[in-house]
Each structure stands twice: as structure tokens, then as C-alpha cells.
Amino acid sequence: MGEEQGKKVLEDGWLAARSTDVELTGIQLTTTHPPSSDASPWMPAVIPGTVLATLLKNNLIPDPFYGINNEAIMDIGDSGREYYTFWFFTTFQCKLSSGQHVDLNFGGINYSAEVYLNGHQTILPKGMFRRHSVDVTDILLPEGQNMLAVLVHPPDHPGKIPPQGGQGGDHEIGKDVTTQYVQGWDWMAPIRDRNTGIWDEVSITVTGPVKIVDPHLVSSFFDGYKRVYLHATAELVNKSAMSANCSLKILVSTELDGNTNLVEHLQTQNLSIPAQSNIQYTFPQMFLYKPNLWWPNGMGKQSLYNVEIGVEVDGYGESDSWSNHFGFRKIHSEIDTVTGGRLFKVNGEPIFIRGGNWILSDGLLRLSKKRYETDIKFHADMNFNMLRCWGGGLAERSDFYHYCDIYGLLVWQEFWITGDVDGRGDPVSNPDGPLDHNLFLLCARDTVKLLRNHPSLALWVGGNEQTPPDDINTALTTDLKLHPFYLKSNSNSTSTTSKDETTLTLMDPSQYLDGTRVYIKGSLWEGFADSNGGWTDGPYEIQNPEDFFKDEFYNYGFNPEVGNVGMPVADTIRATMPEEGWVIPLFNELESGYVEEVANPIWVYHKYIPYSKPGKVHDQILMYGKPKDLDDFCLKAQLVNYVQYRALLEGWTSRMWSKYTGVLIWKTQNPWTGLRGQFYDHLHDQTAGFYGCRHAAEPIHVQLNLATYFIEVVNTTSEELADVAIEVSVWDLEGTCPYYKVSETLSIPSKKTVSLFEMKYPNSKNPKPVYFLLLKLYNTSNSHIISRNFYWLHQPNTGDYKLLEPYKKTKIPLKLTSDISISGSTYNVRVKVKNKSKKPEPVTLLDKNKFMETNLDCDFDEVDKNKNKNKKKEIGLFKKVYGLLKEDDDGVRVSEVNGSGVGVAFFLNFSVRGSGKGFEKKGDKRILPVHYSDNYFSLVPGEEMTVNISFEVPEGVTPRVSLRGWNYDGGHTVR
Hints:
Residues 342-473 form the Glycoside hydrolase family 2 catalytic domain. It is built from 15 helices and 50 strands.
């Protein structure tokens, strides 16, 4: 009986040791002297991961993400490369039958490696961003364990870290084809081993005589996307010594409810492959009528088909198979004639881009499917529709792209060039890119083959704020040229003549390296920033919120990087820093009147960015009063985070298509415990900016123009919005409603931002210095809410929110109604929160917040589907733990938050904490990550809102959902 065919990931049982501590050769390690886990210097290894990840796992270095521990870790620039040259070792079994072949595969190694298998050596070539596949059929042991040892060498030019730090250190890392952020940036401390390690999966693949390699799938559209063709080309490798007569099949199916597949297309072709050779085979094009299309987040469903390719060999049977999800969609990109910005169209529909810059998930490259899914879902939850994989980071792997496909995030993928390391910087860096241009191109072409079938992949870009050297740029331009079908002249063909098909048959589009997406030479060229390479992205600091709406804020149509603050919550500071790091900044008022924040050294090390900007923005935290302690500072920072990022996106969408085509925020997350430019921290807790973005980037959105005080409605969808109205209510700190207005019935055109009427309360007779504004866009036929937006505002002449400080003492009564469903380790909690303070008469409000159902955002539907699962378990658990909660007859629980105040329940936020196994002595008791349908929200008198909460609970842990707020600093248990 032979080995089961297919891929087997080698993920368990890896050992590691520093090369200078191992006196044996690779041949000895894999023949006569294999290491064991209980014999020094060998230790359990982290695969995928880096040397630092392995050392941290074994407590041989302090956590580089905690405090300033990173300074205690030896830097490769001081130690030399041998210090971080490591052996990695594992064993596996693989018993082949006659005719079977096996390849040993490495998804990614940084930077070069020597591979030893059962005493046989293979030298892997250099380059972080290339896959390696070695035929090991003839050196496998037919019985017993196969011994694999890999000696991994760091990048050739790891460089040194100058005393002043800087962007990319001394820039030496740019001589290699590897990540550049590892020498440190203004948002990142240096990575001491420069990410040396086996950073992607290791596997073996078992096939018969013929192997399928890197199929390329392409769709082409006619008749307004009704008539679709699927094109497919695959490389077929005959590993045997005889000619192989093959039957090659391709199957296209879609999943229906109940795990049933509907076959859309099945095709079989016969061919012969000469011995010891490989061929490129292109299938005849396959016709589908009106397939379900793949759409970006906010535009429709992310429909995916299953494409399977299999090959059978006469006299052997099934030799190999390959399967992949595929999304039928067409992406088109051009420079918009109105704005000068780059315009993206998907399936013929213009997409207003609102997204962020992505660095990478983890600075120690502990990459996992679970973390990737959380990261990408977070971005979808923020209603983003694009991520830019920045050129100083990774060429992300297929798992990252898989979840972008699932959640509808378009991806802009850059190659490994940055302005700071490749031509700019201090000192000025080498403009000629890596030393080995051919290696760069090998890595680039392999990356294209790895990622090109993903519908989420939107474009290729040569580099960040720089273009590749001329020869590399010319080669990439040639390699990534568009197939004629994807040129603008054919952008939406409706012709049914044979001319179109004839054009396609000249060269099938699947025979191109890509052919379906544009290549742009740099992030500041061709419709981005000033389009000419001028340093016209940014700014990156705090802003006056109203400035985002002003015409002079940004002069170009598409900003690829605009940054801001990103302070996390206080629990994260305590979890990632010693007590010295819990000290909040000093606020020094200078002679100019500007308040300078002086942060503690640990915050400075973690790249804290102040909430003030010399000569432009007075400290935005002090607008709420001087903070007393860490909790107070971080809470006020969340208020600022929310306002800043909501205003940024609302300012851009206010000028949708008239001035802008898109914006990407610098940046969405950090690969370590940084303190700037993030919507969630490295521990996966969201900042309030996350929810400011979630609201501002709604497909349909009502907003206040902070520069003009006009109410605007943004409709980014393909449908006209008819029979809607806007309710406007102003609330003061005494709980009264001094301004109330309901608009006439409105219609909002598709793909438009419409300015409707002025919010006149600031010009009334006696406006309050600080007040709340609630906007609701609703359907007039059933009062369902389409968009809800809540602001806290001050009069221009007062300039701050200090009156909110005493408002903390106004305790608003709340009613919390909750139910729960449990499926395995996943908890779905639905909490209805109602502000029980009395509504002023005679104001009639849409207080139920019945949100209109939409097919565009279904993140939390599972709560309903699982509502009655495990009911018995649910009731027993919460009766025992939370006896204070009242249980209604239907199993729903009600709790009351007492308060005698009247007014707005301000800035409410949920959190989930645990007790039990593993949490007894743990300082940080948060359960993370958690997905909330909303958080950091406010409720006016009489108003209620339902929040859906989803999270996984470790075994033996009891979760507790609690609610805090500006008026509720003590926290109240919901469950």
C-alpha cells in the first residue's frame, strides 16, 4: 500500500539549534546522529516562524514586544550572521508505491538554506519570496523515519542600526530580496534576527508519474457580464522515464446549501507527455451563462466557485489533482479624467476605495490561518474594501489572500522596493535596488504565479514611494502587460460577433503570466498622489477634524497613505509594558501656547505619536480635560481616535468622484506592540477608531460636513436610494432636545454624495457650548434605519469638550437584555441596550434602531441561526455564575443599570473577560479577539440598540461580557 497522494504539511515535531552550537554536519544529523528534544542545544522550533520566535518559545530571550526588552536582545549587526544561523530538524514517514513520486516543498525561507534529507544535500537558492520544490523520490527511506535537517542562513546584508534609528537602518538590507522593515522604521523597532527562518509551511506532495504545477485561471466577459468564459492553463510535469498518455479533467462547481455541489462545467482532454519533460497545456475555453459574480466588500456577495483539475495516466490511474476557489470578476483600473486619481472598476462598477495600508501580521512571522482570518475580518467589519501590502513588508501568502477573497478585500500588492532604502533616506540609500536583479525578478515571477488566481488581487505596484531600477521595471512591465481583452478598449464589450472570440484565441489569456491586472511602477505614480513621484502622500499626524473636509487638505485624487494616531486601551498598555510604562505624558505649555506631550521612554520606544501637532493642532486629549491616570488618558484617546478617523473618511467621501477616487489610511495595524497608526493592537483589541471607520465607510451613510455643517448622504452602491428621510436631533448635557428636524422624503442617486441642508443649531439663539448630534437616515415606509451617526460637538468659540468631564457623574439608567448561543467553543451573544431615561416631549424619535437588513454586510447573521443551540447548557452556566441576572420565560436575561440622571448614555463599550483555567494569575483577563457589530456607541433618551458579540472561549474558561462607558467607569456585568 502506497502513500496517500496529495500534500502533507510537516508542522509538528520540529527542533532547532544555533549552528555554532552544533558540531555535527548535516549528513551526520540525518543519518547516524539525529538530535533529540531532550539533548542540548536542541529545542522545540516554531515553524512557520523565525529564529527569534523559536528563542522566545524556549524562554531564551525576553519578549521583544514587551517594554524595551528588544534592547536586551543581540542585534545581528553586532553579533554577525553566524549568531542567527540555525539548524532546523524534523522527521517524517512516507512509504511510496510503484510509480509514485514525492517533492519536498518550502513555501518560503529567509534567506538561504542547505537542505539535508537522509544524508543527501541540496542547496536552496537565495531569496525570501520564492518557493522551493525538491524531488526527493530517490532518497526517501522505504521503511522508518526520514530525517530532514535545514541550515538556514540570514540575509547576506543584514546591516547595522544607527544610533538615531531611522527608516530601514543603514539601508544595507536593500541589497537583498527580503523584508526591509526589519531594520526598523518610524513605527517599528528593529527585528534583531532580520526575520531569519523558515517562515512559510514545509510540506511533501505525493503524486503519480505526472504532476500539475501552477495552473492559471482567467475569466473573460461578454454581453454585459452575462456570457462568461473560463480559461485555464497548467504546467504538466512527467517525472517518469516513459511517455505518459493522460486524461486531463477540469471541473467547475459551486456550493449550494447543505454541502451540495452543483457542477457548472466538466471537460476532459486526452494528451501525451514525453518522458522526463514538462508542457504547458491550455484547456479549450469553458462557457458559463450568468455566473454569480465576486464583488468587493460593500458592493455585493463574494461568490466563489470550486475549480478542480485532475490528471489520470494510462496504466497508473489518478496521478495528481489540484483545486482552488475562483471568483468570476473583472477588474479595470485607469486614471480618472475628473479627479486625476486612479479609478477602480469591478464588473463595470466604479468602486470608491476606502481602505488601509497593511504591513504584516506579526513581526516574528508567527503566521497562522486563524490570525489571518481575524485580521481580514476586522478590515471587512470596518467596511474597508482595499488593503495595500506595503513594499517594505511581505509578499503575503495564499492564506492571507484566501480570507481577502472570502471577505471582499481588494489587495494592492507591492514588490520589495521602498524609497527610504532604495534611493532616499538619511543617509541617501542606493537607488539601484538589490544587488542581484535577476533574483528579484525570479522572486517577483514566482509571487505572481502564487497569487494570480485570487479575485481579491487588484494590482501590482513596483515599490513604495520609489520605482524599481530601470531594468527591473522594464521586465515587470513586460511580464505583467495586460492581455488585449483587459485593455480599456475592451472594458465592457457587449458584442456577440466572432471578432472578440477571435482576438482571444490569438493567445489565450491564461497563457500570460498574469494579463488581467495593471502594473504600476510605484505608489506615487500613475493616478496615486501627484502621479509623478513627488512626495505627496501623508500627512501622518493628528489633524483638526474639520480640516479633512476642506478643499486644501489634499490636492490629489487618490492618497495612498494618510496617517494618524492610534493609542490602544489601558489594558493593552498594562499587558505589554512594565509599570514604568503606565506613566502618562507630561503636558508642557510652551511660550507659543502649544502644548508639548512628553511621553515616558517606553512609549517613545514604542513609537508613540502625540495628540498634538506644533503650529497646527492643539492637544486633542486636553480638549476633554487633563487626564488623571492611564485609564483616563486612554479613554480620552479613544474619543479622539474615533473622531479623527471618522472625520478622515467622511472628509474623503464628502468629495467622492468630484475630487477623490479613494484613500488608504496609514496604517491599519502593527506587527508589534506599537502606539501609532492602528485600528486594533497586536493583541487584537480594537481602538475606538475602528468603529469610527466602520460607521464612516458604510456603503450608505449619513454624515455632518464638519467644515460647512451641512448634512450629507453618501451612496456608494449601484442602486438609487428612494423614499428615505433624515431625522436630526440635538441633545444637551441636561438631557433636553433643543433642536429636532425631519427632512422631506428624499431620493439619493447611485454613486453620489449629496449635500442636503444645513444643521442650524450652532446658529440658534442660545446654543449650548457642548452638545450631541444624532443623525438617522431611514426608510419612510417602515422606519427602518439605513444609517445612524452620532457626534459630540462644541461651539467654535469654546474650542473644547471640558464640560464632558463633570458629565461623567450623570449616571443614566440602562436596561440590558441579552441572550446567548454556544456552538463548540464559539459564543454568540446578542445584547439589547436601552437608555431608560425619559424622552422629552413632544419629540417623536426613531428610538428602536431597527436597522434595515442588507445583503452587503452579513457578518453577524450567525447569531440568529444559532440562537437555540445548546440552550440547556447556556441556562445552567449562567444561572450558576451570574445569579443576579433575571431570566425571562423565553431564556432571555435582563439586567438593570441604575441611575437617576437624564440624558445621553455616552461612549458605551463592551469587553469580554475570562476566569478559570489559565486566567487565575493572569493580569490581562481579556478574551481576544472579539467581533462586535458596534462598540463605543452612545444612546439618547429612550433609544435602544442591539449589539452582536462573537468570540471563542478557551477550554475551561468562563467568559464575562461587561459594559462600561463615559458615565459608567465601574463596568457592569451583562453575562
